[in-house]
Amino acid sequence: MEATKIASFDRISELKAFDETKTGVKGLVDSGVSQIPRIFHHSTVNLANHKPLSSDLLHLTTIPTIDLGGRVFEDAITRKNVIKGIKDASEKWGFFQVINHGVSLELLEKMKNGVRGFNEQSPEVRKQFYTRDFSKEFVYTSNFDLYTSQAASWRDTFMCYMAPNPPKPHDLPPICRDVMIEYSKEVMNLGEFLFQFLSEALGLNTNHLNDIDCSMGLRMLCHYYPPCPEPDLTIGTSQHSDSSFLTVLLPDLIEGLQVRRDGYWFDVPPVPGALIINIGDLLQLITNDKFVSLEHRVLANRATRARVSVACFFTTGVRPNPRMYGPIRELVSEDNPPKYRETTVKEFAAQRSARGLDGTSDLLHFKI
After folding, report:
1. Which of 25, 169, 339, 344 is the most exposed place for a label (fewest CB within 10 A)?
2. What is the largest CA-CA distance in the chain?
3. Among residues 32, 36, 15, 23, which one has the least CA distance to residue 236?
């Protein structure tokens, strides 16, 4: 018993010591650590990397890539084929990459550079934004679930709700303020477009998902994954599914993202200029499991330069939103009854905030 207490006390002390530096994982790397602290050590179960054997799942390689044609379709057949591609991907993978998506490649690079710029500026400047008060307009921290997770992950993050009530420009760091505002507007436009196609893929009216406010909220999380000296001992982001309706992810060209399907981990190779789209738990809930929200994770960074990504979640999160969400009436029947109870986005998001990324689906709590 005494040994357990000592181990527990040591862990809390180490967590607090790390947190109080206010410089995150980047601070550890800058200090020249060659061994990662114990608080970042993950179990071998979490780190297991089951890949399909050559004889298994030969029809599966990785998530599909869909050409959106600049969001302009000259004929109905092309448009119909794109919707079919989105439908198939949403039912089988819950993930797909989009190219020719209408967001300029220049803006994508500026956004990634903004994330690098913030994290690679003076520690004294970064410290001013570091907080665990998630009610603030802009939050820079390392591991939102630092004190509740079994092990910390090798990443730092800054986050902000960009819609429906965007922050005042002075609440955002000067180094990435303008590009955050510009990029979030472009993602909102893309999201509304995708929700139209997802609606049609479900056999619903084109505007159904937008009309029930699936595209109303946007939360931006900008991740910074420094190079890791012991990548076999930790992870960049642990196994989880997203609690949003939809996620638009801007990755860089450093690999690391994996999607879990049928018990296997599939690598998602970066496609230059592409955005990665994935179905969130809330969309699985309201489609009554027709679309799937698959678990995914990010491996610790083995490269010599930091990996960055920008995840934009279509959700109002824990912010006020009185609308109730349950399986869409048109998608249920006597043969396919509702599988989930109604909930609010705030109640749903609170599950994630309380538990952190513990590898279990938030959907389980709302099953009928």
Report:
1. 169
2. 72
3. 36
The CA distance from 302 to 4, in Å, is 33
pLDDT in tens, 282-333: 999 999 999 999 999 999 999 999 999 999 999 998 888 899 999 999 999 9
- Show Cβ contacts of residue 2 under 8 Å, excluding neighbours closer than 6 positions: none
Q: Is residue 8 part of a domain?
A: no
Instruction: Report the chain's C-alpha Rg in angstroms.
Output: 20
Reported as a single tens digit per residue, the pLDDT across 239-265 is 999 999 999 999 999 999 999 998 999
Interstrand relation of 65-67 and 275-279 (parallel, antiparallel or unpaired): unpaired
Contact 99, 68 (CB under 8 A): yes
Query: And the tokens for 311?
Result: 């995840």
| In contact, 137 and 166? CB cutoff 8 Å | no
DSSP per-residue letters across 108-147:
HHHHHHHHHHHHTS-HHHHHTTB-S-TTSSEEEES-TTTT
What domain range is 138 assigned to?
Answer: 22-366
Q: Give one DSSP letter per residue of 307-351, joined into a string.
A: EEEEEEEES-TTS----EE-S-GGG--SSS---B--EEHHHHHHH
**Residue 218: strand pairing partners:** 163
CA distance 180 to 185: 9
The owner of tokens 């690079």 is: 109
Instruction: Answer whether residue 228 is part of any domain.
Output: yes
Which run of H or of E encompasses 96? strand 95-99
* In a domain? residue 150: yes
In a domain, 325, yes or no: yes
Confidence band for 52, pLDDT divided at 50, 70 and 90:
confident
- Structural domain total, the chain: 1
Sign for the pseudo-dihedral over CA of 177, 179, 180, 186: positive
Q: What are the distances in angstroms from CA 285 to CA 14, 177, 208, 338?
A: 39, 34, 15, 9
**Helical packing angle, 105-119 and 177-201, nearest 10°:** 130
pTM of the model: 0.94
Residue 96 sits in a domain whose CATH number is 2.60.120.330
Amino acid at residue number 164: P
The helix (H) or strand (E) run that includes residue 237 is strand 235-240
